[in-house]
Amino acid sequence: MGTKGREIVKMDVEHLLLLLNKAYSDEWFAYYQYWLGAKVAKGPMKEGVMAELLQHAGDELRHADMVAQRIIQLGGSPVESPKQWYEMANCSYDPPSDPYVRVLLEQNIKGEQCAIQTYNALLAETKEGDPVTYNMVLQILQDEVMHEEDLQALLEDLDLMTSRG
Ligand SMILES: [Fe+2]
Ligand SMILES: [Fe+2]
Questions:
Q1: Per-residue pLDDT tens for 104-150?
Q2: What is residue 74's DSSP assignment?
Q3: Helix (H), strand (E), coil (C) string for 109-144
Q4: Ligand 1 centre and the CA of 141: distance in Å?
Q5: Ligand nearest to the CA of 26
Q6: Helical H runs in the chain?
Q7: Ligand 2 center to residue 2 CA distance, Å?
Q8: What is the DSSP letter of 98?
C-alpha cells in the first residue's frame, strides 16, 4: 500500500491483520461448506437449495478475495496453510455429513449468524481507525445478512411444504 494509504490507518495494524486473517479463515470454511453442501444435498426442494448454496459459495469466495487483498494492502500475508484455518477461524466448520436439506440449511444459518456477529464486531473495531477496511467489512456484512435471510426463507418454505404434504 502507498505511504499515504498507510498513514490514514489510525489503529494497530498488527491487531487488524490478525482480525482480518481470522475472518479470511472463516470465509474459506464458509465457501467449502456451501460448495460441498451444494454437491451432496438430498431431500425436498433439493434443486432450489442447491442453487442457493452454490450462489452463497461464490459470494464467500469473493469475500475471501476481498479480505486477502486488504491484508496484502496493509502489508500482511493471508494465512498460508489451510491447517491454520482451524486455529484462526471465529466460526466452526460444520461438515455436511448429513446431506438432508434441512440439516444443511440449519448448519449454514448457524454459520451466517456467526459471520454476522464477526463482521459486526469488526465494523465497530474499524469505525474510527480504518475507513477503507470499514467500507469493505460493511459490504461483506450486507451480504451475510442477506445470506441468513435467504436460508431462513428456504427453511420456512421447506417446513410449509413438509408439514402440508
Ligand atoms: Fe462471507
Ligand atoms: Fe455468507
A1: 999 999 999 999 999 999 999 999 999 999 999 999 999 999 999 99
A2: T
A3: HHHHHHHHHHHHHHHHHHCCCCHHHHHHHHHHHHHH
A4: 8
A5: 1
A6: 3-7, 13-40, 46-73, 82-88, 101-126, 131-163
A7: 31
A8: S
**Sign, Cα dihedral of 55, 57, 62, 66:** positive
Contact 57, 104 (CB under 8 A): no
Render pLDDT for 77-100 as a digit per residue (tens, 0 to 9): 999 999 999 999 999 999 999 999
Rounded CA-CA distance 28/26 in Å is 6
Beta-ladder partners of 42 = 100
Between the alpha carbon of residue 35 and those of residues 91, 116, 117, the distances in Å are 17, 20, 22
Q: How far is the CA of 143 from the centre of ligand 2 (A)?
A: 6
pTM of the model: 0.96
Cell numbers of 135, please?
467500507
C-beta separation of 88 from 28 below 8 A? no
